[in-house]
Structure formats: C-alpha cells, structure tokens
Known about the structure:
Blueprint: H1 2-21, H2 26-39, H3 41-72
Amino acid sequence: MNRERSSIEAAAAYLREMIEAGANDVRTQSVYEGLMDVLDPTRHSTRVDRDASADALAAIIRAERDRRGRMDRRGHTDRRLINLGPAAGGERRTGQDRRSGTDRRHR
C-alpha cells in the first residue's frame, strides 16, 4: 500500500506542477482532483457535499427568479395601470356610514 500511495502522490505532484506551469485544462484539473480524492477520502465527500449544496442553492435561486419573473411580466392590461375614473354609481357611503369622527368599535 505504501508503494501505491507514493505513486499516487508522485502523480499528483506532477500534475500540480503542470497546473502551476499553465496547463489549466479541465482534464488535468479533474485527474488531479481524482488523485487527491484517492489520497484523502474525506476530501471527496466534502467536495461532493459542497457541490450538492451549491447545486441546491442554484436551484432555489433559479426558482425564485422564475417566480419573480412571472409576477413582473404583467402587461399594460394590468388593472392597476388603467385609470377607470370615479365609480359609476357615485360615492357608496354617505354621512352616517362614514367612519370619521367616532370610534366604530364602541357602537
């Protein structure tokens, strides 16, 4: 097991040197990450958990943005944008029905 571990460490060190030298392609990065995961299994589970939580957060943000987008897509037919003018039948409340001046809870 010691020989296998030292071989994996040497390969990881070589890939790290390549990455530092400028070989930052996806394949080199993923092979390096895979070798590091073999050397430290807890690193793998931590990375998987972090990726899963990032994906979950992105899904929540996307859902919230979609929900807000639907609400914001109102057209010019929105009832709040149209001025209908005063009510057709005039004022509904007159004199006694108005609430100003008295406390309506103690009637």
